[in-house]
């Protein structure tokens, strides 16, 4: 059975997008990218909301950029090899291989998908993740916390949901970025 992981970069005050400006993404360097690539290499299925998919589809062609460093090429190849499921009512066609579009989120379908997988899955994007969290589908939470406090925006965790989590791992990077991994109790 696959584990469903929700992971995003978040500001120190818990926002994945800021009301104004960015959330301090400057902390993403080669060391962080390599760590993320190694961490999520076993993931073979990505569950996306439309906006997150439109951001991540960059990896479909990132390996073709002139002078792309090896860690970028490696991550792009891993991303391309994985299946992608995108929930969208507006997206007509996928922009990447191994991708299908679903029109409405069905928690039971995701539960069945997890049950038959022999690999982990991720749910990416705060809106889709909120639905998965509310349905009790998320097994692990990986937060990459920047050193910025942004004061508002879109939160990592949805309002109205109580979670009791167990810290199972963490790492700090020289840039000040902190990765924490929590498991649902």
UniProtKB/TrEMBL annotation:
Highest taxon above the source species: Bacteria
Q: Which residues form the Bacterial bifunctional deaminase-reductase C-terminal domain?
A: 4-178
Q: Which InterPro entries match?
A: DHFR-like_dom_sf, RibDG_C, Riboflavin_Biosynth_HTPR
Instruction: State what protein this is by name.
Output: Deaminase
What organism is this sequence from?
Answer: Ornithinimicrobium pekingense
């Amino acid at each position: 059975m696959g584990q469903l992981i929700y992971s995003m970069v978040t500001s120190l005050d818990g926002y994945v997008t800021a009301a104004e400006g960015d959330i301090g993404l400057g902390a993403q360097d080669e060391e962080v990218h390599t760590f993320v690539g190694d961490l999520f290499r076993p993931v073979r299925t990505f569950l996306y909301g439309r906006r997150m998919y439109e951001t991540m589809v960059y990896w479909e062609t990132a390996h073709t950029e002139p002078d792309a460093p090896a860690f970028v090429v490696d991550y792009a190849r891993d991303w391309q090899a994985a299946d992608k499921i995108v929930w969208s009512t507006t997206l007509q066609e996928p922009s990447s291989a191994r991708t299908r579009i679903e029109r409405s989120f069905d928690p039971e379908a995701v539960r069945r998908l997890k049950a038959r997988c022999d690999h982990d899955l991720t749910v990416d994007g705060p809106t889709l993740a909120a639905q998965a969290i509310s349905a009790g589908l998320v097994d692990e939470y990986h937060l990459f916390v920047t050193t910025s406090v942004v004061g508002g925006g879109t939160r990592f965790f949805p309002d109205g949901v109580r979670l009791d989590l167990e810290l199972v791992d963490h790492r700090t990077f020289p840039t000040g970025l902190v990765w924490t991994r929590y498991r649902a109790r």
